[in-house]
Amino acid sequence: MTDVAITSPRFRWVQDFRSLGQSTQFALVGGFIMLAAMLLVGLVISGVVARTITDSRATNSALFLDSILSPLVQELAQEETLSPASIARLDNALKNNTLSERFAHVDIWMRDGRLAYSTSPDLIGGRFAPPEGTARAFEGEVSSRYTDLTADEHIARAWTTKYLEIYAPLREHRSGRIIAVVEVHELAHRLQSRLRRVATQTWLAVSGATLLIALALIGVVYGSSRLIGEQQAALRNRIAEIERVSNQNRELRRKVQRASGRLAEMNERYLRHVAAELHDGPIQIVGLSALKIEQVRRAADAEGREAVLQSIETLLGDASRDMRVIAHGLMLPEIEGLSLNEIIARAIRIHEQRTGTRVSVACGEIRHGASQALRICVYRFVQEGLNNAYRHAAARGQAVECRLDKDRLVVRVSDEGGVSPGRDRKSDGSLGLAGLRERVESLGGTFSVSHRRQGTTIEMSVALGEGEEA
Predict the structure, then answer these.
(1) How far is Cα of residue 41 from the mean position of the Cα atoms in its chain?
(2) How far apart are alpha carbons 415 and 423 in whole angstroms?
(3) Residue 68: which domain range?
(4) Which portions of this protein are annotated as coiled-coil regions (predicted)?
(5) Within 10 A of 174 (CB to CB), how many other CB atoms are there?
(6) Residue 328 within a domain
(7) Could you tell me if residue 335 is left (phi over 0), alpha (psi between -120 and 50 degrees) or otherwise beta?
(8) Which long-range CB contacts under 8 A does 255-262 form with residues at least 24 apart?
(9) Residue 419: inside a domain, yes or no?
(10) Would you say residue 250 has pLDDT above 80?
(11) In a domain, 28, yes or no
(12) Does the structure show a pLDDT above 80 at 163?
């Protein structure tokens, strides 16, 4: 059910998102979260800064007005209203160009909601619902807010412009008792202009910091993602290489098993062949000689006995010769302690001595050690290859080449004689090419035969294992 839901068109974006790289996923998710965090932090910081600037402006204005107005309203400590002379003095003080340009309206509130003074003369003595700021000011706090145009006193003035309202307490000089609250309506365009500049600077700072943090994190994640990607690619390549080597090892193991089985079968056939050769050759001759012994006993004279004995001697000589030929094919020359170059040279020398022919040799120096099994395999390979060249190519162009290809030994035996199609080159009384293939493959090597008009070439390639006995 989950797979169906995720692959449906409505959730296709989830699958598309999962297909993106880790750095891209982080950039999208992290960018969205950082954008939300930037907006939240920007709003909070800009709000705090704006409130701080506004409160600072209100405090400064309150202190400034208190220094001007407080001496003019001291009579409110004993009276409920201001005298006309005090009102006139207040008018004169507030008509100063500097004050009138900064403060559009000034109201002085009593605790009961009466206006003891106002720059709007028709409101003096009027009673209105006290603004919220007056209550806080009567408690000794300086507060500020933007004009509430729905307030009764502002409706009476028919105001449409919002001012910054500042509420500050006015105290009696001797006792410090709060006797009234002054409400100042300050023109807000300068303050708002400053707040906009500060807000712009705040947002630029927050945005810049967020961008730098995002770039730094994305850079770190991108670098880590690239490193992880490289490691994953290297790991995949390593796994593929291990799998390839494992497949090669399995194939090699199968070849070795098949080669071992076929080699055992061929050895068994070879033993039967040797037994048949012994039975059909020397044993038959020895049996015939045993029968002639009876003729010696029955011979009538010494001359007859001598003739039979000569016949027996001839037969036994033939049997001895046949047995030496068979034994010669079974025996391997002493190669213990010889290097690969010396083993190849000995096989070539023995072949030249037996056949009276010449063999071309092109072998580089091979200093690697080799196991006894590899020594025997190389000797039999050269021996069998030269025997085939002698029998089937009349020894024309006999050549032996050997070289090292990195850590692999390559040996090649070739001749310049032709071979009839379908004819299988095998040595009489030996394992033949099939036996050589089994020998080479049992050591983990490769064996190949190529027939051309110019002649036949056999080649073996075997890895020289490290740590083999020299």
Answers:
(1) 37
(2) 16
(3) 46-187
(4) 235-269
(5) 8
(6) no
(7) alpha
(8) 255/441, 256/441, 256/442, 256/444, 258/441, 259/437, 259/438, 259/439, 259/441, 259/442, 260/442, 262/434, 262/438
(9) yes
(10) yes
(11) no
(12) no
Per DSSP (E only), the strands in 173-328 are 178-186
CB atoms under 10 Å from CB of 323, counted, come to 17
Which residues is 184 bridged to in the sheet?
A: 106, 166
Residue 3 has pLDDT above 60, yes or no: no
pLDDT value for 88: 85
How much is the pLDDT for 188?
A: 66
Percent of the chain with pLDDT over 70: 83
Residues in CB range of 304: below 8 A, 6 or more apart: none
Q: Within a 10 A sphere around the Cβ of 152, how many other Cβ atoms?
A: 14
**Would 316 be classed as within a structural domain?**
no
Amino acid in position 108: I
Instruction: Among 11-25, 74-88, 342-356, name the one with the lowest average pLDDT.
Output: 11-25
Confidence of residue 281 (pLDDT cuts 50, 70, 90): low
Tell me how far apart the alpha carbons of residues 116 and 77 are, in angstroms, rounded to a whole number.
12
Q: How many domains does the chain have?
A: 2
Output the domain CATH number for residue 407.
3.30.565.10
